[in-house]
Amino acid sequence: MSVRVVLADDQPLVRSALQMVIADAPDLELVGEAGTGAEAVRLAQSLHPDVVVMDIRMPGMDGIEATRLIGAGSGTARVLVLTTFNDDDYVYGALRAGASGFLLKDMALDDILTAIRVVAAGDALIAPSITRRLIEEFAERPAPAPRRHDLAGVTAREREVLALIARGMSNAEIAADLVISVATVKTYVTRLLAKLDARDRVQLVIIAYQAGLQEG
User: Fold this and answer.
1) Its pTM surpasses 0.85
2) In whole angstroms, what is the distance from residue 75 CA to residue 42 CA?
3) Does the structure show a pLDDT above 50 at 147?
C-alpha cells in the first residue's frame, strides 16, 4: 500500500516541488495540500494520511500547534516538520508537540522522500546538523538531577538497545552491534515504547538522555 501524504506549507512553489517528486514515487501518494496549520489539522482529521509534511511558519496557526493538535487527535498521522528555520526553539517546540521528524528544506529531495518513508514506518528522523547540535548541547550541560524516567522495569538488554537508539543508530546498525537479528531489535524497541510510554524513537532518545545513557 502507498504511504498517504498531506503537504502543509504556505508557499505554493514548495508544495509544487514536493508534489512532483511524490508523484514520481510509486510508494507515495499525495492526498491533500494545506496552506495553513488549521487546514493541515482538518485534512489530517478528514483524510487520515500516514504522514503530514509540516512547515513551521504559516498564517494563523503555526506548524508546531498544528502538530500538537494532530498528535492529540484520534488519527494515526505522523508529522514530519520541514522548514527553512534551523532554530533551537523550533526544534524543541516541534519535538515536544509530537513531531516524528525535523528536516531542513535545503536537503536533497530524495532525502526528504526517504524521511517520509522512515516516519511512515514508525521511525523518527532528525536532520544530521540538528542532531549534532542537540548532542553538543546535552554534552555541555552539567550532570542532570534525577528525572522521572529512571528506567524502572527496563532490562539490561533493553537499556543497551536504548543507549544505541540515543546514538542515532538504525535497527540494522543496532542488530549488527549487538549481534542479534533486526526482528529482535524491533521487539526490544516495541517493548521500550510501551514501558516508557513513548510515542516514537525521538521520545526514546530524549528519555535516554534524561537517564544519562548517552554517557555510556
Assistant:
1) no
2) 11
3) no
